[in-house]
Design goal:
Blueprint: H1 2-9, H2 17-20, H3 27-43, H4 48-55, H5 59-66, H6 69-103, H7 111-147
Helix pairs in contact: 3-4, 3-6, 4-5
Length: about 150
């Protein structure tokens, strides 16, 4: 059987057959599950050892995977996606955060709280403006480069 050969010679050869049989019954499905568990664990910042434990593979297997450019690219892509999702969540919550900061500015609020709210509002506003300006300038440069003939 091809599945038995894959399990016996592949990167998960040290696993007993019982660990490789998932509900689908496929050794390939087990390998994919181990791969996804390892890559998700690594993307969350875990060590190679922790990723190996959670994936049910050896640390050496994770180390070998980390040498694979496709694996590293997948890990980088997943990490970038996680950052984008976190950023989107923070952006969605920013309206309430602004309301909270503004609500801390009336004269009836203690001076130290008002000062902190004002500083945070100004610092964050400046940073956001810088990011927006940079994105705008980058988009203009990319458009300019795209319109130039290839050399």
């Amino acid at each position: 059987m091809a599945q038995d050969r894959l399990r016996k010679s592949g990167p998960f050869r040290h696993l007993p057959a019982s660990r490789c049989n998932l509900p689908g019954g496929s050794v390939l499905a087990a390998i994919v599950a181990h791969f996804l568990t390892a890559i998700n664990t690594l993307a969350c910042g875990a060590t190679w050892e922790t990723a190996a434990q959670r994936a049910g593979v050896s640390k050496a297997t994770v180390q070998r995977r980390m040498k694979d450019p496709a694996f590293r690219q997948r890990l980088q892509d997943l990490g970038a996606d996680m950052v984008k999702r976190a950023s989107a969540g923070l952006t969605a919550a920013s309206g309430e955060a602004i309301k909270t900061l503004v609500s801390l500015m009336p004269p009836t609020i203690p001076h130290a709280v008002r000062l902190g709210a004002a500083k945070t509002t100004l610092e964050t506003g400046i940073r956001l403006r810088e990011v927006a300006d940079t994105e705008e300038r980058l988009a203009a440069l990319e458009a300019q480069m795209a319109s130039q003939p290839s050399r």
